[in-house]
Amino acid sequence: MTDAEIFAKLKQAVIDQDEDAVLATVDEALADGVDAKAIIDQGLLPGLNVIGEQFECEDIFLPELMQAALAFQSAMTVLEPMIKESGAEGPKRGKVVLGTVKGDLHSIGKNILKLLYETSGFEVWDLGIDVDLFQFVDKAKEVDADIIAMSALLTTTLVGQKDVIEALRDQGTRDRYKVLIGGGATTQEWADSIGADGWAASAYEAVTLSATLVA
Amino acid sequence: MRSVELLTDAQVARTHEASLEVLERAGILVHNEAAREVFRRHGCRVDGESGLVRLPADVVENARAKAPASFTFCGRDPRFDRTIPDDGPIVVTGSSAPNLVDPATGVERRATSADIAAIAHLINELPGFDVFSISTLADDAPLGQLSLSRFYPALKNCLKPVRSNTPSMDDLHQVVELGELIAGGPEAYRERPLINHHYCPMVSPLTMDVDSTEAVMWLTERGLPVYTTVVPNAGLTAPMTLLGCLVVGNAEFLAITAFQQMVREGTPVIYASLPTVADMRTGAYAPGAIETGTLIAAQAQLARFYGVPSGGYVGLTNAHANDAQSGFETGMNTVLAVSAGATLLNMGGLLSSLMAFDFAKCVIDNEIALMDKRVWRGLEFSEESLAVDEIVAAGPGGSYMSRKHTSARMKTTAVLPRLAARDMRGQWEQSGRPDIHARALAEARRILSQPNPVVWDDGLDGRIRDRFPGLVAGDAAPLGVAGA
User: Which of A84, B107, B163, B363 is deepest in the core (most CB within 10 A)?
Assistant: First the structure.
């Protein structure tokens, strides 16, 4: 198989959301001596781009987007160590500290966002659920994050997002980060009123927005 | 009325068994350590490290069987106390929206304690509503008075039972103390607890949280009224079948009910839920979708099998305005729920998937509530209602219009809507072609332009304000008019 054929096969396996086929084709490509970075850049990512376009026009639904992203992530667990070893690691698009705010245990939307961030080239520190403001602030400082992304589903826990922004202001570090909020209880108006840098209605939109914020 | 049934008796029994199997094989994740201890003491297998609790079927069965058949909501005035299922269906407002559609501008904004006071006044006056679940948050709440700033204006302006949640134990203690002040002391409060607590300690799928669980435990231990809602979401927190979603929700209900009975035997419960099917095109939340009505209907049957009252959030809408979508989502879902025997409808006043309160929506929902209650009455079968003597007396070709039999029943047989159009097109055009939103908002303005006679006296108000310095005013203002 030519490299072009291998890349086409990789791309198609992602478009088919077929994790087994993705992994098998990655193995095949590596055995053929194809470079790990080329597998990603010329095979898998073009497939993900098609998936993104299909999702935007509702040709595919969210579970299918997730399955394609998961297949991509499985391939990355094989490929990433090789890239690191070879020193060919490219720069990440940005560092994200992510979590669901204090008092809120809802994780599903946040986990979807984590997966989409990772498959879009962001480095993610997921603090999980019920995260208090100091955990956000401290972790962002520790990893020198570009983005702090906070989720809240319960209207009664929303205020946790405001608390983090105020704590950053108090510490004089507000300008170091882009703060993104989301989750079922949030709106653009809320984001504006607490001085967040961005709000997104869905995980997919959050990643698109993040890319423009750190560009 | 005979209830609509979606399941056979054998299917109900099988759904119940399947739920028990889930609790035994998958178990539930319990984040609250005190709650884990309760489960352990009652014979559940607890993994201390992960917090996973597996519930043997016989343990669940023994515990849930202790739940009584009814649940009572108390209000400031006992005339408004309601017990389900017997007084059902009772209609409750939707709650805890952060925003409100400003009646003067039509623009969504953060809600305040003064808004809560106005909404409480409105709910007190609208006959379709039985319980005021505090519709919004209060953005103007002073530090440390988040919940007081909601409960105080609500209770001050409404005699009907008030219901809501609290985000922390400090808030809960404050709110109960407020209730004791209003009742005239802790003992009087215990006698008739006029605050009704509600929480969602079950985070779907099959997980119990820390804070709400602690609140539910504290209230249950004290015999204060508290019930919970389970919130399965097919496609995200439950399988993508209605039945699978029913099983997850049912397992969650059984677990939390067993838990409450373990904490205190005989604690009244409601089988309440907000079941949804996620819109898989985007994962969007869809509480207005018809599948919620179907699931609430099936759940009503399970609740009868368990001998407990049931209902939940049904009749919510995803619509952002009082348009046809808003009407059909609230109307179709609640009719389905009531037909199936649900006796608690959390439905009133919210647009945009629980995100915003709207005064006009609230008045429209009052009218839908009155229709739902008419559906519940059914045909009221009796010899007298068959009216054979009346039919013979009027005779072939006769008119019933001027007969005493008719005038004696003309105000009770049918719902007399204040909003739904019954006039001729020409009359409607002459009055400026008002749509349902305009008519409803005018009705809200009419009600709120009147003084509210149920606001408590200065003596009680002084005692409350002495105890909680800095408290919000808690008074309603007439609704603003566009351009004012």
Answer: B363
* Residues A137, A139: Cα–Cα separation, whole Å: 6
CA distance A59 to chain B (A): 9
Domain containing A8 equals 3-86
Average pLDDT over residues B458-483: 89
Which phi and psi angles does B482 have, rounded to 5°? -50, 135
Q: In sequence order, which ranges of B65-168 are alpha helices (DSSP H)?
A: 113-125, 148-156
Together in a domain, A71 and A167: no
Pick among B282, B313, B353, B354 to test the A interface (most A CBs inside 10 A): B282
- Is the Cβ pair A187, B165 closer than 8 Å? no
Interface confidence (ipTM) of the complex: 0.82
Residue ranges of chain A whose pLDDT lies below 50: none
Label residue B483 by pLDDT band (50, 70, 90). Answer: very low
Q: State which of A53, A69, A86 marks the end of a domain.
A: A86
Same-domain check for residues A116 and A73: no
Whether B439 contacts B120, CB under 8 Å: no
Chains A, B: CB contacts within 8 A come to 57
Q: Taking residues B402-413, what's their average pLDDT?
A: 96
According to DSSP, residue A202 is labeled S
Which domains does chain B possess?
71-377 (3.20.20.480)
> For B297-311, what is the mean pLDDT?
98
Say if B137 is an interface residue toward chain A (CB within 8 Å). Answer: yes
Domain count of the fold of chain A? 2
pLDDT at A89: 74
Residue with tokens 């005190």: B34
Distance from CA of B300 to the nearest CA of A (A): 26
Report CB contact under 8 Å: B97, A155. Answer: yes
- A chain contacts of residue B203, beta-carbon cutoff 8 Å: 105-106
Q: Which chain A positions have a beta carbon within 8 Å of B207's beta carbon?
A: 105
CATH number at A136 reads: 3.40.50.280
Examine the pLDDT at B290 and tell me if it is beyond 50.
yes
| Phi, psi dihedrals of residue B271, rounded to the nearest 5° | -80, 90
Q: What are phi and psi of A67, to 5 degrees?
A: -65, -40
